[in-house]
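Section 5: illustrative case.
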């Protein structure tokens, strides 16, 4: 019976101080560590030591060099299997640019997935697309109108054998990372060897302060930057063993994630807030866990909501989960992955502000005993900026703000992407000539730590107030937590104060009496806590559109609603909005 790769390297730890991924794997291959793949019941399926990963990647690269010219783009289905790791690294040794692609389950129906894939292929100018044989029909269908060959992994391994390697150098590209599409169509973010190396080094040396005893555990999808960079490339460049489970297995059995951490003494693992929330909901008290080894429970990929994390802490703290383990961070694919990290052991640094004051002045003023509870909102600090990187909070005239003033988060540093592949317009809109990125996010400083408050595009401007859709959504979910799922709020129709605020709330029941109770409870909560007139519609589970990173795509949900494609459970028929604006 195979055993997973050990935590001990057998060689000196290096914190990602390599010029290229090929150099990093050349060194990691001399260590004992590697990747381990488990099924949904925490059974070990495949072991891939870094030594074997390098051997297989080099062999495959010799087949890929004759297949395509240097810097050709290869669409690569990002399945959580050894084949993906081998092919991604084979591209590095062959001088080809892999573009990890999402899987059909994440995008809602086959038609939607095919359209998404077709747009990616258009912007990426793919030479070919590689995928498992099970995915070949849907991918071939999506690319039916394009002269892009779709090869199964078996086909790729049977390409004619060559003899030459063509590894990327320090000045070359590394990959194309597609944005998660929370507010727009996916854009191909360029990752260079330099930007990836800088971010992996910053994460390992400073953000996570990786040590000799660290071991990673991950269920995160490898087509998203938090999975690809955070839990495949950073561990590889730091010679850390990783225990993987498939994202679908996590969704079905989230406690398996915790079981792997317990069984193999995992120390580093990340999740968006909803992952921790799912574990609390699915816990059945049917096993013993020891989570005392888990020193860094990272939070990223979405807004950090303190309430579900506190519930996780209360429940699993009895099983060794440390009070200071939570590590909020902030980043985005345009900065490779990470830009800020909370200091080790800090836990959740909460800041409760007066939202009435904020909505009037855009200042994050701390709430006092005199602040009404309905006007209070708690944010969580996302930590300090990585060394050699800079963050500025700016107003809309580009003036730099300080202290508790809320403004646009702008970033600069060696981890920054040079822009979007073959999309000059989008690059010029987000990246300034002097090297700054406008992230589209809003935030403020809590002493020397960044607090993120939301995305500018999602803000609802109503009667002179800045209304966060998250406030409406969270108030609704809190009013009926056991019967409801995700919520989505957005403005539509009219201009200025004539806009209507819409709220969609997923429900787990179709009983008319229960739906009526939910409707009344939620409307009362919204009136009390938010004070904004809202049009509420109760909708079935699975209505919301979620990005690859687990974020709610308000723009796409709104578009779906305006097209009349969302069922009203209290009317039991699709609703069509006539004369409303399009998303």
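Designed sequence:
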């Amino acid at each position: 019976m195979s055993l997973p790769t050990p935590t001990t390297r057998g060689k000196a730890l290096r914190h990602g101080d390599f010029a290229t991924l090929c150099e990093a794997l050349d060194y990691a291959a001399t260590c004992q560590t590697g990747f381990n793949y488990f099924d949904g019941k925490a059974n070990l399926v495949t072991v891939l030591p870094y030594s074997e990963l390098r051997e297989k990647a080099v062999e495959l690269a010799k087949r890929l060099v004759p297949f395509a010219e240097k810097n050709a783009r290869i669409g690569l289905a990002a399945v959580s299997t050894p084949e993906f790791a081998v092919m991604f690294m084979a591209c590095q040794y062959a001088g080809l640019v892999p573009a990890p692609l999402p899987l059909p389950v994440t995008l809602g129906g086959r038609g939607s997935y095919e359209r998404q894939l077709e747009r990616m292929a258009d912007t990426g100018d793919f030479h070919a697309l590689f995928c498992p044989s099970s995915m070949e029909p849907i991918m071939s269908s999506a690319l039916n109108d394009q002269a892009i060959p779709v090869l199964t992994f078996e086909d790729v391994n049977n390409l004619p054998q060559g003899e030459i390697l063509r590894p990327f150098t320090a000045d070359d590209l590394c990959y194309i990372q597609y944005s998660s599409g929370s507010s727009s169509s996916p854009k191909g973010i360029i990752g260079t060897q330099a930007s990836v190396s800088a971010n992996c080094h910053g994460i390992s040396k400073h953000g996570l302060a990786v040590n000799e005893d660290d071991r990673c555990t991950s269920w995160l999808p490898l087509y998203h930057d938090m999975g690809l960079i955070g839990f495949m490339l950073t561990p590889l460049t730091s010679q850390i063993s990783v225990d993987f489970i498939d994202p679908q297995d996590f969704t079905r059995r989230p406690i398996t994630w915790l079981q792997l951490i317990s069984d193999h003494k995992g120390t580093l693992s990340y999740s968006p807030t909803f992952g921790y929330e799912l574990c609390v909901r699915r816990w059945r008290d049917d096993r013993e866990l020891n989570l005392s080894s888990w020193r860094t429970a990272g939070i990223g990929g979405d807004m950090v909501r303190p309430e579900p994390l506190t519930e996780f802490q209360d429940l699993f703290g009895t099983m060794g989960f440390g009070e200071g383990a939570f590590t909020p961070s902030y980043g985005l694919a345009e900065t490779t992955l990470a830009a800020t990290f909370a200091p080790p052991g800090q836990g959740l640094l909460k800041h409760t502000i007066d939202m009435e004051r904020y909505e009037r002045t855009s200042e994050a003023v701390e709430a006092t005993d005199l602040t009404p509870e309905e006007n209070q909102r708690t944010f969580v600090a996302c930590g300090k900026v990585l060394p050699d990187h800079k963050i500025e909070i700016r107003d809309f005239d580009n003036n730099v703000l300080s202290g508790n003033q809320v403004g646009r988060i702008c970033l600069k540093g060696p981890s920054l992407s040079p822009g979007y592949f073959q999309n000059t317009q989008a690059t010029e809109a987000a990246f300034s000539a002097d090297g700054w990125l406008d992230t589209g996010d809003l935030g403020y400083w809590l002493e020397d730590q960044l607090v993120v408050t939301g995305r500018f595009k999602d803000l609802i401007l109503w009667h002179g107030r800045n209304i966060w859709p998250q406030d409406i959504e969270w108030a609704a979910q809190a009013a009926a937590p056991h019967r409801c799922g995700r919520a989505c709020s957005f403005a539509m129709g009219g201009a200025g104060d004539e806009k209507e605020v819409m709220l969609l709330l997923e429900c787990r029941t179709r009983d008319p009496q229960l739906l009526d109770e939910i409707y009344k409870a939620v409307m009362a909560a919204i009136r009390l806590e938010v004070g904004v007139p809202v049009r509420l519609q109760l909708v079935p589970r699975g209505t919301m559109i979620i990005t690859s990173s687990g974020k709610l795509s308000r723009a796409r949900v709104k578009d779906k609603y305006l097209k009349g494609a969302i069922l009203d459970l209290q009317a039991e028929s699709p609703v069509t909005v006539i004369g409303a604006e399009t998303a």
